[in-house]
Task: structure prediction
Amino acid sequence: MVRPVTARPVAARVGVFFATALLSAAGLACSVGKGVPPPSGGGAVASANADATAAGLAILAAGGNAADAAVATALALAVVHPEAGNLGGGGFAVGRFDGEPFALDFREVAPAAATATMFLGSDGAPVPERSLVGPLAAGVPGSPRGLWELHRRFGRLPWPRVVAPAVRLAREGFRLSEREATALARERALLARFPETAAVWLEGGVPPAAGRVIRLPRLAALLAAYAAVGPDAVVTGEAALAIERTSRALGGVLTAADLAAYRPVWREPVRFAAFGWQVASMPLPSSGGIILGQSCGVLERAGWARWPVGSAERIHLLAETFRRAFADRVLLGDPATTLATERELLDPRWLARRAAEIRAQQATPSAQVRAWDPQAVAERPETTHLSVVDADGNAVALTTTLNGSFGCGVLVPELEILLNNEMDDFTTAFGTANLYGLVQGEANAVGPGKRMLSSMAPTVAWRGEEVLALGAPGGSRIPTATAQVLLAVVVDGVSLEEAVARPRVHHQWLPDELFCEPDACRGAAAELAAWGHRLAETGKVGEVHAVRRGTGGYAEAVADPRGPGSAGVSPAGTARRP
Ligand code: DON
Result:
């Protein structure tokens, strides 16, 4: 089910077929409103699911722009990809409109009643499951207000139209994808712990098979209300009380007041230049953009581009760079409590120092890699990602998540939405690794209203007329996966299809291991081991969904062959290679 849609006419036709079918089914084909110009060519969408990509393409074909299509795709994912798509979670969007980059933070926050010790038992020892399963694991959802805010600022089509494809999918039904059926079977034990969740997703205790038509009438009603009145339909009134009731009944602390108080935040994106391209990515409370910026900055200084693809030298430099970026990550947290800032960690002097520390043909043990400190520079103290580009070259990269698959497992029965388990992204117990093996710092301690540190890295990059939007799920592997795809494009100049498909590696400081996808280190394993790297084979490093628009209306969309994602260009005939 690999769908790398390059700009070949046949692929473009697939995209438009989806778009047209969905458009007419949603009653959108003849719609006019909010100054909608006639549809123009060259847009592209890539996401984790074919129905969701079709929703985004339909919105582009109806004259919507990249923001409209990103919101429509994200909301469709909330229906057809419940493992990660959501209204009960949060995320980030980074993009570029009319040449101006932006970053929107709709990350969850800790409820007002959260405390630094809430994930410790009475003996002070960590109770690991508490931050992953059940309602104490849930942060205050950011998606309902976040997606609305993205559309409010940049959207072109009326809001109800953008929500319409998701309403239709929930109301009329959709065929369960292979991916989702597999995930439901895999997470059966989690889902079975909560009867209301099981009643929807494990009918009779059995996970539904792929291809089964699923209808979600209560979610459809919620989405219809969201379409009619906006986020207040989800985060205030009866809906908010329903979320509070579910949480309380299972021992959680999330309240309707938390939901009403939540606000997304527009932030200055992390900006840097890399190999002749301009890049914008997500700032704190995500570490993603900083890790990406540090990685590109160090690799450029270390002469990474001169080594051949797949060589031991290239992989070594990637590992050493990622190791150091993740060592600095331990200082990061919510912007209000972080112990280091983007300005400090992307300071050219610090990047030069990090590049100089890397030894040729010799791994530095992680135990010897110290995080940045003010004295360091002598002069001075199953997440899901979608990418969209429109005919005007506007781009949105949006990553949204419940954290673990199906979040904390708790479904709010009145609304048919799952709650996240994002609280596990905090430092829940010092010295203990989280779900992604990350050992985190004091700056990321739990506190009421705080945003938990993320690794998500929705990113846009541009050079002249060319625009690229990309990102991935994969926990701590997100910034390293995103970096390797970006580097393949900006350094090696390969097609997006090849950039996404290339085998990848990952290092995150702790554990001190160089993770290699099956083919990534094959030709270099002996050398890398001799240089002191501890190699570990891993299934996959992220799942990148990327789009690109080039000169003359050329558009390309690629869903990662590592997963069953879906990509398309819209409309047919406009996409061609330059
Ligand atoms: O924000 C973060 O970094 C994590 N909650 C992301 C989770 C994720 O990527 C799950 N998907 N594989």
The chain has 19 helices and 21 strands.
